[in-house]
Amino acid sequence: KTPLEKVGTNYKAHYGPIWSLQRNPAFLKNFLTIGDWTARIWSEDCRESSIIWTSYQKTKLTKGAWSPTKPSVFYTTRVDGTLDLWDILLRQKEPCLSIKVCDEPIHGLKCHDNGEVVAVGNDVGTTYIIEIAEKLVKSSKNDKAYLTAMFERENRREKIIEAKLREQRLKMRAKTEINNQKP
């Protein structure tokens, strides 16, 4: 196969560059992208649009990473030096926790495997290690089931929207063909 034939799918993820991309470690069909002023969660089953997204932030996002221990939690960093923690089971339009780490843009982000610390690095070469509260690190017994249900619900919703859009495009194409055939 040629390199182009090996590309399985492409997603129109953001209006500009994608600064970060990572699969959810517990739900491998789902991945997080960071670009423009949003974080978006995608499913391999929905190709037309993301299944969950944050509202547009006031400051450009620079990086994103899933928590390795709590599947509903991800982190984003911003150009204003802020680290945000999001738990999509709690809320999706605003972070659960925002920490102003420094005054410079943060472009490095890495979660420790145990989820208890997050490292961020800024544009002037400084690395910060941030400890995360235990309740934001450990999943409750129902978290995975709730997140599974949420991802399945959002997948169904997006598939319905995709089908309706395809139907509308077909109707428009048929209407155009009919209009072009008229003498």
Automatic annotation (TrEMBL):
Tagged with keyword Cytoplasm: yes
Alphabetical GO biological process terms: cilium movement; outer dynein arm assembly
Subcellular location: Cytoplasm, Cytoskeleton, Cilium axoneme
DNA-binding among keywords: no
Assigned GO CC terms: microtubule; outer dynein arm
SUPFAM superfamilies hit by this protein: WD40 repeat-like
GO MF term list: dynein heavy chain binding; dynein light chain binding
Subcellular location, principal: cytoplasm
Gene3D superfamilies hit by this protein: YVTN repeat-like/Quinoprotein amine dehydrogenase
Keywords on record: Cell projection, Cilium, Cytoplasm, Cytoskeleton, Dynein, Microtubule, Motor protein, Repeat, WD repeat
Cleavable signal peptide: none
PANTHER family, A to Z: DYNEIN AXONEMAL INTERMEDIATE CHAIN 2, DYNEIN INTERMEDIATE CHAIN
Protein family per UniProt: Belongs to the dynein intermediate chain family.
Protein name as catalogued: Uncharacterized protein
Species the sequence originates in: Rhodnius prolixus (Triatomid bug)
